[in-house]
Amino acid sequence: MLKIDNLHARVENEDILKGLNLTVNPGEVHAIMGPNGSGKSTLGHVLAGRPGYSVSAGSVQFLGEDLLAMDTEERAQLGLFLAFQYPVEIPGVSNMEFLKAAVDAVRERRGEEAIGSVDFLKLAREACKSVDLDQSFLKRGVNEGFSGGEKKRNELLQMMLLQPKLCIMDETDSGLDIDALQVVSRGINEMRDAGRAFILVTHYQRLLNFVEPDHVHVLAGGRIVRSGDKSLALELEERGYAWLEDAA
Amino acid sequence: MSDFMQQPIREAPELAPAWLRPLQQRGREAWQQTPFPTRKTEAWKYTSLQALQQRFVAADRDSASTDVSDIEFPQLGGPTLVFTDGHYSPALSSRELPDGLSVVRFAEADDAQAARIRELLGSAVAGSRHVFVPLNEATLADGVFLDIQPDARLEAPIQIVWLTSGADAALALSQRLLVNCGAHSEATLVETFASSDTGATAFTNGVSELLLGEGARLQHCRLHLEQDNAVHIGGVHIRQSANSQLYGFHLALGSDLKRIDLVVDHQGAGAHCELDGIYLPRGSETVDYHTCIEHSVPHCTSRERFRGIVGDEASAIFNGRIHIHPQAQKTRAELSNKNLLTSHKAEVNTKPELEIYADDVQCAHGATVAQLDPMTRHYLRTRGVPREEAEVMLSYGFINELVEDLPCAAVRDFVKPLLASRFARNPRLTRHLL
Ligand SMILES: Nc1ncnc2c1ncn2[C@@H]1O[C@H](COP(=O)(O)OP(=O)(O)OP(=O)(O)O)[C@@H](O)[C@H]1O
Ligand SMILES: [Mg+2]
């Protein structure tokens, strides 16, 4: 599904990713952990094609295609989804019109027709229920004035509606109350299937208790410095990152 | 002093009812004594009047029956008066009036009505510094007087439509609206200016006076939908009595030159006004809004929000004056002007002009000029929305906040698709907006 090979990326003339390798197969859940500022969000942004993030070396294959050659929207239409660590507020654009524009773009790329308004409304309402957001959030501006937790739920809502193939979730579990953490975990688990993969960026073992990862990686200094199974997360919880950074 | 406008000034008296002649005479004298504004005149610093330097003529009566079926204006269902090139078009109008409303054209006023009009006309523009008001009066042939009875609650919006047909000759049109809202009355008023995009330049000088009695509530929309070749210099002058409430919605699509002055004079304590405005010049168009809130008495509030999207080589001017007089304690005034530039050659001049002579007041103001936020665009694209559509959604979103707050649903429903089509001709790009 995703093959990242020796990825080097920079932001504002600063090298952030320095030779990152990662392979994700369909059906897998990967957790990426690592100290603040190590480049986890940068990785997500580079994969999603954020302007200002330039790749200086390396390659990324997504579903057998050259991801880095694609526009941001093309990546999304092919099935790449990034749940932002800091979702963006867009006053004046209603959540509803935003969600429908997104769903239609993805459907049309697959050769399907735009979804009818009535069907979409039904779908959106159901999705609201599963992420435990009141329907009134559909009418509000995208993320406008949403609390931190509400923004995270809105990211999950978008993910559910778009049904992407690769879900990169950047600290979707941060800032959530205990119930919301359950909501998010349940949402992820419901979407897990053999054809879909997840990259969960997280600082906490907590999420991984609910969503069991197949692989856990530590990103430090712009590279993956250690990979293991779910026991690695437990070990990190106990020992912190210092022992790994020294090794790196 | 430019000699433009001499011809319509000469022609106008023949078309007007006799009782308007003294007003015309006064206007003519004032106009001829007024120095013609230049770029050195403070209120016209950024706005060129070059577009007026040509020969204009007054429209003749035949224009009332000119075919204007290609010009779009809102169909609101309520009483509607349509004027074509300044002349009343009965076939396009609907004068079924609800109780509590009387509508009189100046040209058809009987003696009593003429006396009432004369008594009120000019009372809201008196003392204003607007040099084009005398010109309006000098060339005035007709006008509309709306008289709303005290306590009347008028449900359906009243609409006055001024159409410019796109005749071959360059027309100079003076239009005048006088509205008297009786104490504690409630009404919605929509003024629409629209033009054909063919024909010669037309110069419209539209002056509206709105008088709000004690506790009156008025929703007022002024839609400038005129095309490129329509020059408009005009204004709305509002006088508010105690505890009256005004909501104003202003829209200006661009043209060669549009200059609108909005003046609100709070003359009674507890008056409140809200002015929202949107301007969208593109090409080489110019839109200039000058607003002025006169806080003359204590305990009044005003809130203004103007937003503009300026594209291509267009220019926009916004000047927001708030004048708080010494006795106007406990005034609360808010002013915000935000501009979105969609091209590097587009230009905005925005200026708050605060004159505050009372000490116990709250006055907040802010003005911004920016381009589309790349991060919001990126966010939309990460969800698969194509770049072009994302830009249309964001531009529309920038003004949509004001449109959504428009209380009159019929106007909102008219304005939304119109604005959407303004951002993209390709309906695929606007299909998710409505
Ligand atoms: N626009 C920028 N200009 C300069 N440096 C930047 C910019 N954006 C990010 N960086 C730097 O890149 C490094 C990696 O940031 P990134 O957001 O990827 O970290 P992270 O691993 O996600 O951290 P956290 O766990 O705190 O979310 C940081 O040192 C950050 O300061
Ligand atoms: Mg991060």
Task: Describe the protein's architecture and organization.
- The complex is a heterodimer of chains A (248) and B (434).
- Chain A is globular, with a radius of gyration of 18 Å.
- Chain A is α/β, with parallel strands linked by helices and 248 residues long.
- The longest helix of chain A has 15 residues, at 95-109.
- Helices cover 40% and strands 29% of the residues of chain A.
- In chain A, helix 4 (117-130) crosses helix 6 and helix 6 runs parallel beside helix 7.
- Chain A has a domain at 2-91 and 165-244: Rossmann fold (3-Layer(aba) Sandwich), CATH 3.40.50.
- In chain A, a hairpin with a 2-residue loop joins strand 4 and strand 5 (65-66).
- Chain B has 434 residues and is of the alpha/beta class.
- Chain B has two domains: 6-268, no CATH class; 375-434, no CATH class.
- Chain B has eight helices and 19 strands.
- Chain B has helices at residues 6-15, 21-33, 111-120, 132-138, 374-382, 387-404, 409-423, 427-430, and strands at residues 80-84, 87-88, 101-105, 144-148, 158-164, 171-181, 186-195, 202-212, 217-224, 230-240, 245-253, 257-266, 272-280, 286-295, 301-310, 315-324, 332-341, 347-356, 362-370.
- In chain B, the strands form two sheets. Chain B has a ten-stranded mixed β-sheet, with helices on one face. In chain B, strands 3-4-6-8-10-12-14-16-18 form a nine-stranded mixed β-sheet, covered by helices on one side.
- In chain B, strand 1 and strand 2 form a beta hairpin.
- In chain B, helix 5 crosses helix 6.
- The longest helix of chain B has 18 residues, at 387-404.
- The mean pLDDT of chain B is 91.
- Chains A and B meet through helix 2, strand 7, helix 3 and strand 8 of A and helix 5 and helix 6 of B.
- The complex binds adenosine-5'-triphosphate and magnesium ion.
- Magnesium ion binds at residues 40-41, 85, 170-171 of chain A.
